[in-house]
Amino acid sequence: MQYQQVYLFLIKKLETGLPAYLTYHNADHTRSVIEAAENIGKAENVSGDDLVLLKTAALFHDAGFLQHHQNHEELSCEIARDHLPDFEYTPEQIDAICRIIMATRLPQNPQDHLAEILCDADLYYVGSDQYAATAEKLFKEWKKTRTIKTQTDWILQQVEFLSLHQFFTQTAIRERTEQKQKNVQELQLKLEGQLTHTNKINLTEMVQDLLLMIAGVVMAGFALKGFLVPNHFFDGGITGISLLIHEIYHVNLAIVIILLNLPLIIISYFSVGSRFAYRTLVSVILLGICLFLLPDLDLTSDKLLISIFGGVFLGIGIGLIMRVGAALDGIEVLALYTLKRTSFTITEIILGINILIFSIAAFRFGIETALYSILTYFAATRSIDYVVEGLQAFTGVTIISGKSEVIKYQLVNKLGRGITIYKGERGFLPGKFEVSSDCDIIFTVVSRLEMRKLKNLVYDVDPKAFVFANTIKEASGGIIKRRRQH
C-alpha cells in the first residue's frame, strides 16, 4: 500500500478541486481528520496495515465533495475504488476502506474498531476548545448547501446534535467528552441570548402592526358608512347584530359595536390569549372612533354594487385586522365559548347565529334586503379568506416517482422546501397487478405561487411522476413562512 503517494495525489486534488463555498469540508479538514485518526488509532493500539487502512479511509472519507455534497460518502467510495488500485491496494483492502468510510454517514453506525476510530476522528472537533471557530465554518458552508439560514436555527440544531452525540472509542471519550459538555453549555447560553433578543419588542414591527390595524379599521368603517348603513344592508356576526340593533332602535352604531364586542373580548382574554384580547380591544375602539368621525357617504343606490363592494371592503378591513393577530368581530369567540357548553361545532354555531340575523332582517326589512345582505356576507367572507391566506395560501403536495432521489434534491436545494418521506410501493397497474417496486413517497408544503414551479421541477425530472395536491387551511412550524399567531 503506497499511502504516502496516494496522500500526495489526493490532497492536491482536494486543494485545487473543491468549490470555494466548502469552508469546512476542505483539504484542511481532511488533514485534521487524518491526524486525529492516527492519534486515536495509536492510543487504541492500532498499527501496521490496519493503521494504513485507517489513514487511507480518513484521506478519502470526504473525497466525494469533489463531485457533489449530496451522498458524498458513496461518491468517496467510488473515487477510492477508481484510484487505490493504482497505488497497490488490493480489492479486499479497498472494501475495508469503503466500509470504514460509510460508517461516517450521519447517524454514524460503525461496525468495527477502525470505523469507530474514524467516526470519532471525523467529529473530534465537537470536543475541542476550538469548536466555535470550526462550527462557524460549517455554518457558512451549510448556508450555501442546505436550508439552514439563521444563526438561531443553526444553534438549535447544534445543541440537539451535540446532546445526542456519543464518542465510540475510549480514547475520544476520555479526551473529548468533558470539553464537549462545555461546548453544549456555551451553545445553550448563546441560544438563550438569541431567543431573548428575538422575543424583545420590535418597535418597527409594532408601528407596522398599528398602521395595518388603522388601515383595516378605516376600510371596514368605509364599507359600513359608505355602503351598508345608508342602504340598510346587513352582515353576519356581531357586526350584523349591531347593524340590526342600529336599524331597529336607532342606537349609534359605534356604541353598539363596542358594547357587543366587549364581553367577547373579555372571554377571549381567558380562552384565546391576552395579546389577542388587547389588540382586538384597540381595533374595536378604533373602529368606533372611525364610525363617529365618518359621515354616511351613500356612494351608490345600486343594490348589487352595495352588497358586493360593501362586503369586499368590509372583508378586506376585517382581514387586515386578522393579519395583525386581532379581530373586529367576536363571533368566533362567541362560537368557541358556546362550543364548550353544547354539542354543536363552531361552524354550526356561527351558521345558526347568521341564519337568525338574516331571518330577522327578512322579517323586518323584506326578503330582498335579506338576500342582498347574504350576498354581502359571502363577499366579505371571500375577501377575508383572500387577505388572510393571500398568495401565501399553502398547498400540500404528494409526489410518487421512480426518480425520487433527484426530485428530493430539486425540492430541497432548488425550491428551498423541506420534505417528508414515506416508504411505499408503486405499481399494481391493471393487468400487471403482481408488478410493484419500493419507492419514496414525497410530501412537501408550498405556497400557491410556488405550485407551478414545483410541477416544472418535478416533470423536468420525471414526466410520468404522479403528483396530487390539496389545500392546507393552517400550517405552522418547519421552514415554511410562519403566520402571526394570536
Summarize the structure.
With 486 residues, this protein is α+β, with helices and mostly antiparallel strands. The protein is built from 19 helices and 4 strands.
Head-to-tail CA distance between termini? 66 Å
Provide the low-confidence segments as ranges. 481-486
Sheet with the most strands: spatial strand order: 2-3-1-4
**Backbone shape:** elongated
Q: Helical amount among residues, as a percent range? A: 55-70%
Estimate the strand proportion: 5-15%
Largest sheet descriptor: 4 strands, antiparallel
Secondary-structure-derived class: alpha+beta
Q: Can you tell me the number of structural domains?
A: 3
Provide the succession of SSEs. HHHHHHHHHHHHHHHHHEHEEHE
Number of DSSP strand runs: 4
Average pLDDT reading: 84
Radius of gyration (Å): 32 Å
Number of helices: 19
Spell out the blueprint of helices and strands.
Layout: H1 3-17, H2 27-43, H3 48-60, H4 72-83, H5 91-102, H6 113-122, H7 131-145, H8 151-164, H9 170-199, H10 203-228, H11 237-249, H12 253-271, H13 274-293, H14 303-323, H15 331-339, H16 346-365, H17 367-389, E1 394-400, H18 404-414, E2 419-429, E3 432-447, H19 451-461, E4 466-472
Antiparallel strand pairs: 1-3, 1-4, 2-3
Helix pairs in contact: 1-3, 2-3, 2-6, 3-5, 3-6, 4-5, 8-9, 10-13, 10-14, 11-12, 11-16, 12-13, 12-15, 14-17, 15-16, 16-17, 18-19
How would you portray this structure in words?
The chain has helices at about 5-15, 25-45, 50-60, 70-85, 90-100, 115-120, 130-145, 150-165, 170-200, 205-230, 235-250, 255-270, 275-295, 305-325, 330-340, 345-365, 365-390, 405-415, 450-460, and strands spanning about 395-400, 420-430, 430-445, 465-470. The chain contains 19 helices and four strands. About 35% of the residues are buried. A hairpin with a 2-residue loop joins strand 2 (about 420-430) and strand 3. Mean pLDDT is about 85; it is low at about 480-485. The protein is elongated. It has three domains: about 5-145 and about 165-180, Hypothetical protein af1432 (Orthogonal Bundle); about 205-390, no CATH class; about 395-470, Alpha-Beta Plaits. The chain is an alpha+beta fold and about 475 residues long. The N and C termini lie far apart (about 65 Å). Helix content is about 65%, strand content about 10%. A four-stranded antiparallel sheet has the order 2-3-1-4, with helices on one face.
